[in-house]
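[job 0417] fold request received: 3-sulfolactaldehyde dehydrogenase
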Amino acid sequence: MRLLNFIDGQWSEPVKGQYRNIYDPATGEPLWEVPRSTPEDLNQAVEAARAAFSSWRLVPGPKRGEILFRVGQLLLERKAELAAKMTQEMGKVLLEAEGDVQEGIDMAFYMAGEGRRSFGQTTPSELPNKFAMTVRDPIGVAGIITPWNFPMAIPTWKIFPALVMGNTVVFKPASETPRLAYELVRILEQAGMPAGTVNLVFGSGTEIGEALIHHPDVPLISFTGSNETGRHVAEVTGRELKRVSLELGGKNAIIVMDDADLDLAVDGIIWSAFGTTGQRCTACSRLIVQEGIYDVVRDRLKERIEKLTLGSGLNEKTDVGPLINKQAVEKVKKYIQIGKEEGAYLETGGDVPHDPGLASGHFFLPTLFTNVSMKMRIAQEEIFGPVLSMIKVKSLPEAIEANNQVTYGLSSSIFTRNVNAAFEAIRDLATGLIYINAGTIGAEIHLPFGGTRGTGNGHRESGTAALDFFSEWKAVYVDYSGRLQRAQIDD
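[job 0417] inference complete; emitting structure tokens
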């Protein structure tokens, strides 16, 4: 199958007619072809979005929301099919792929409601016979750049609030997972989005992404990806005074206290560290354990890890699917060597599997390091693979300090039965997401999503907080006194 760009309501070949293959990361088999677009394709998409903005911004918010409601219904009807396609091209197990699609469904229905709820405020004026209020205004063309690990959820986090607020969209999905982007835009088209409001351009970050962030007619950029690329996006957009939202990396930790329910904690650790093969920005890659239970937790984890089944995500018996590509495998291998050289002890894993049935895929054994200190690179740098590092601490203050000793600040978790300890953690953990007696993954779409420090630039996705990025506040004063009144001067 050959995918196409979607520009101004039309499915179109790339200008230069060039394509490349997408491969199944579990088997190495070719799946479909995707365009190698050029800046010329991108320019056409931006022009279409710019032209459509003048009319889309005037469509009443409830009507915009009705289209998103239809999108949610269509996603729900096609959930199983979309999840299977996602597993084919991204590798995550089918159950997780279904959850990824469900996030898109939830976001569609949630943002559909915001078409009627995009509230401003009314407030008393300091002068008589004068009315004061605020309203939200759309901004223009939103450039949407998304990663491969959540190929349905993350695009919907960005595209749906952008559209419901009256912006138009140029969407550049990750090169590794084009099919879900294609299917999402087909559904938006089917639901009744007017021509030009949503445009899809496939291509590389170095060519299409770069052209998008530089384009003078794109005042909004929403980017999720690596810190290195995020810094570059921030530099470019800062010079050009664009509004930019950056959702970047994480080095997330689970804290386990002596009084924790260990059965629950181990379940949460396994899910958070090895779900999606560790390829989540919220994945747990550090395990901070109080010294009294350190050995017990280590032994339980090692036993559970060695029972995890690797394979194609389409197989219902698979626990851990492949990494996204060969480069990801090589990166994890590099960090295994770094950990050994730094003095960490490799308890289990640390290599590709030797099963001939997995030789064609990008698999890596779930890995556990112990004897890890906070100064080690494996405890500081984002690996983005199935690697967990155990750190021993004496107390809750030491655990919180260890949690906060990284440049990232996305997600953290604590397992404890002590309500005082839980609230102390809520107060002092320096992350945007905090879980009590649950793992580091599992954000819900009606709460703000995002992190502190090196994880981003302060904006949030999901919930009503997302609307703030995709709209401008406009303050309105209505003076019906019939005379000139001067604020701060006249009584």
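[job 0417] notes: The chain is about 40% helix and 20% strand. Residues 5-248+456-476 form a domain with the Aldehyde Dehydrogenase; Chain A, domain 1 fold (CATH 3.40.605.10).
[job 0417] exit 0
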